[in-house]
Amino acid sequence: MDDNGTDTHCPYCSLQCGMRVAVAPGGGAEVRERPAYPVNRGVLCGKGRSAAEVLRPEARLTTPLVRDGRGGNLRPASWREALDVAARGLADVRARYGPDAVGVFGGGGLTNEKAYQLGKFARVVLGTANIDYNGRFCMASAATAHRRAFGLDRGLPFPLADIARTGCLVLVGANPAETMPPAVRHLRELRERGGTLIVVDPRRTATAELADLHLRARPGSDLALALGLLHLVIADGNVDGEFVAARTTGYEEARAAAMAHWPERVERLTGVSVSELADAARMFGEAGTGMVLTARGAEQHSKGTDTVGAWIDLCLATGNAGRPYSGCATLTGQGNGQGGREHGQKADQLPGYRDLDDPAARAHVAAVWGVDPGALPVAGRSAYELLGTLGLDGGAHALLVMGSNPVVSAPRAAHVTERLGALDLLVVSDVVLSETARLADVVLPAAQWAEETGTTTNLEGRVILRQRALDPPEGVRTDLAILRALAAALGRPDGFPYDPEAVFDELRRASAGGPADYAGISHRRLRGGEGVFWPCPDEAHPGTPRLFLDRFAHPDGRARFAAVTHRPAGEEPDAEYPVYLTTGRVTAQYQSGAQTRRVPALNAAAPGPFVQLHPRLARRLGVVDGEPLAVTSRRGRAVAPARVSEAIRQDTVFMPFHWPGEGRANTVTNPALDPASGMPEFKLCAVRVERAGEASPAAASGAGAAR
Amino acid sequence: MKGPRVAVVGAGMAAARFAERYGAFGGAGTVTLYGAEAHRPYNRVLLADVLAGRFAPRDIALPPGAARVRTGAEVVRLDPAARTLALADGSVHGWDSLVLATGANPVLPPIRGVRLPGGAGLAGGVHVLRTLDDCAALARGVAAARRAVIVGGGVLGVSAARALASLGVAVEIVHQGPHLVERHLDADAAAVLARGLARLGVVSYPGSRARAVRCGKDGEGDGDGDGRGGEDRVSAVELACGPGLSCDLVVLACGARPRTALAYAAGLGVRRGITVDDALATSAPGVYAIGDCAEHDRVLHGLAAPAWEQADVLAARLSGARPAARYRGSRAPARLAAGPLQYAAFGEVDEQADPGLDALRLVDATRDSYRKVLMRGDRLAGAVLVGDMTAVDAIAEAFGRRGDPAADDPHHLLVPG
């Protein structure tokens, strides 16, 4: 480390802004600008600027904790004792119920090295099929749709800076102005260059404020909206027939699907008027080049995969894919949301984005791991299916959680919390005492981003290096060291190095020849650079900033249209639960808040949950701004202050999901799963809204109550 | 053959939707659509757009899921007891469940001269617009036409008028009712619509009855001389009130009548349509009816949206996805969105007909927009929008909250913000 600190990247979202971390003059760490890094050019949001706060000893765990028996308290313990309790517990459960009874739950914030090692640990040491991660709650629907359409899933198949150069950008259920503020400069630049911006969101968000056209679609209607736009693009004669013929298959089925979504019908399904639909279709269809970026608002649905597929169809029909400054992409959420899904902590995947059920993929990875391909487990349960069956017959009875806080972030969170309580053993490795760690039998304090080296892959598919800038405090170990120790205790002393570079070199071999090929990327190459876009099959390869320019990744080189149809959400409003609830984020908090809720400046900016609702709904309910509101679904009840705002539809309320306790939005959400991706339906469920004071089972439904 | 055999009589919109949903719901049976037309299922709502050239005919195909589609297969007889149906070619096919989606026929008004002598079809230059074949014939007629008269000023007449006007044809609408689209619009709303039509060059004559269609030899009259001289072809429409409107094309848009003959002959309960209950079941076990041919709760909808709601319910039931699903009627608005011609009508639209209704109206003559909400006490009973559609979402939302007091100043429904 020099006086200027060490080049590294932010611990939070998928933008992975470049920053420098230095030792502050008064001790402790501080975050500084790193203007040369192209993605954010030095700009950081409040979370990034204050990221060093979580490194303070007061904010974090610095010693292992062990619970003395059921109902006992968590107490400080030595590493030896904590690892011993954990390893013995895992071995006991495996012996008693079989290997699949030991579950592993990872996170999209883990580095590539950790994600890889966690997957290997699960498959090789534990021998379990049941490993999944919180990325299933994040972008699984987009990943599935992109793989179906393009044969490959990389969040953005182009550099982020390209979006400023497209003719028309459509953001669907994406709110980067709030979730990744440094990215907004690309939107501004787009407008300055004469491009147009269309934002699809049931709320007039900070991002929608920037738009030329804001389509305030009803929650759960993005699929119908995309098909309606495709319909109009066809009617307007803006289909690129040459592109469709040369580079795609399945157009006729997609066209038929669009014919089932004519404008008047789509208006009825979406709440977006025919004239706005026509404006949007013309804007996009006549822009020359166009991009669609989806995010959680479009994806976190029981029809998320089909929804993304329909937006891809719109791009394919207009020739906006596999060409410069055009394409359909997803804005990944978590810091390593992209890399985290590529290297084997997903129930159905092996490193290099290989399919677990592909015999060649199994053989390749098994050879790298030095095991028999037949010994690798088959695909296990998706995240909610894993969490929702903990402690039940056939479910997992022990769970190792690394870098995730499902007590706050899982759908139907009260049920998940109850299931966690039914485990024989819960082991949590985390940097802070999260709500999930509080339930654990063993808590293992892990080192943080600035204290260990590792790679992440940002939303562009750019593999970057976070460099160790500081020493971790005493009492803290890296996740790689923890996995090594557990593997050794469970009889695998070899194959689990704690040196991240050694792990990465093995990951390179495991990924070689796979869809996400990292073989040509090395820590050495990343050091001091701007990152390398995968695939990068050898050291001489420059990396691949833009995918699909010549061909899509299916064997025939063609992209696939998806023939999809609008369908209702897992739960639609009815007389008893008449209002839509949608959930989302605020700028100053991140995910379950486990890190950001420990930063005073961020808590000052966003102190707690709230229920955003339209003034007219508020009037119907007799509610004033700031008054506690109860939001009740078939799964539970959350209470938070009303925030009355015209920025939301009258039929919808919004809650951010970053907080535990009474205001936990996920107490209410619906775990209806997308059949293709396993994504739960965070973005919409049916609720009753009432003043918390007078809420009773007999109270009238949310609409029409007390005036 | 695996699973039950589900036979669908008809391959129109309701049939296609049923077939697509049955597959999507995971139905285990084999669905066969028997369609009399030569085309696979297509979206009838878009025929005016096909006529106007916005879509090629093949572009409006609808997805029928995994169903087997038999085109040109006219069903001529049903036997509910034997669970068979017979085709015009004499073949007989068995089924386990039968779905009647026979649709409706265009109503031919009692106007002298619209039919060829002996009832062998329509007079030359006289068209209906119900099928793709009708559309193709009309498109051929339009190519040689300069002046068209549309008989009937309902939603089909208005959209056909717009399509013909966009093709450069001078269009006049003869409408027997007191004003255009009287089923959905009140007089003031219809007046706004008529002004919108006038701007497209379409003249409308409400309160007028066409008495006769006059024909002349082709090539006479305005002498387009296309070389097909000698064929009888329409030259004018005579009105009951006296004047004749000279024209070379007539489109009959006088509504549609449910096609019930098959069901009636098979002994099923038929009133105006084939009567069905909330399960879409007819009077015969295992036989169902959906779409324009079905009469539910004494209502014939005749619109695509209710037909699809019925298809969805029946598909949910027969596929086993939701065996107890029920159809409780539709509250879909009547909606026209043809370029500048826009209207939406929800629920009850005429306060003159019901003293219990209070109307609140907002008329903007400068923008040719008309908005009205009808309240019954504090409940929203209906609404009409013409021209400006910015309130359509707010009204749909309020209207969707069945029976719930609007609990709101109805002004807000007219001016959402």
Can you walk me through this structure?
The complex is a heterodimer of chains A (707) and B (417). Chain A has 707 residues and is of the alpha/beta class. In chain A, 29% of the residues lie in helices and 18% in strands. The longest helix of chain A has 19 residues, at 79-97. In chain A, helix 2 crosses helix 19, helix 7 (222-235) packs across helix 9 (251-259) and helix 15 (359-369) packs antiparallel against helix 20 (500-511). In chain A, strands 5-4-18-17-16-6-7 form a seven-stranded mixed sheet, with helices on one face. In chain A, strands 24-26-25-30-23-27 form a six-stranded mixed sheet. Chain A has four domains: 6-59, ADC-like domains (N-terminal domain of TfIIb, Single Sheet), CATH 2.20.25; 65-137 and 338-453 and 471-516, Rossmann fold; 140-330, Dimethylsulfoxide Reductase, domain 2 (3-Layer(aba) Sandwich); 579-694, Barwin-like endoglucanases (Beta Barrel). With 417 residues, chain B is α/β, with parallel strands linked by helices. Chain B has three domains: 5-105 and 256-319, FAD/NAD(P)-binding domain; 117-252, 3-Layer(bba) Sandwich (FAD/NAD(P)-binding domain); 348-414, no CATH class. Chain B is 21% helix and 29% strand. Chain B has helices at residues 13-24, 47-51, 132-143, 155-166, 187-199, 261-265, 304-319, 392-400, 411-414, and strands spanning 5-9, 30-34, 68-70, 75-79, 84-87, 92-94, 97-100, 104-106, 126-128, 147-151, 170-175, 202-206, 210-217, 232-239, 244-246, 249-252, 256-258, 274-276, 287-289, 294-296, 334-338, 341-347, 358-364, 369-376, 379-386. In chain B, the strands form seven sheets. A five-stranded parallel sheet of chain B has the order 3-2-1-7-19, covered by helices on one side. In chain B, strand 23 and strand 24 (369-376) form a beta hairpin. The longest helix of chain B has 16 residues, at 304-319. The termini of chain B are far apart. Mean pLDDT of chain B is 92; it is low at 219-229. Chain A binds chain B through residues 216, 234-237, 252-253, 255-257, 259-260, 262-265, 267-268, 271-275, 563, 565, 567, 575, 578, 616, 619-620, 646, 649-651, 703-704, 707, and chain B through 16-17, 20, 24, 42-43, 45-46, 49, 54-55, 59-63, 304-305, 308, 332-333, 335-337, 342, 389-390, 392-394, 396-397, 401-402, 404-405, 407-408, 412, 417.
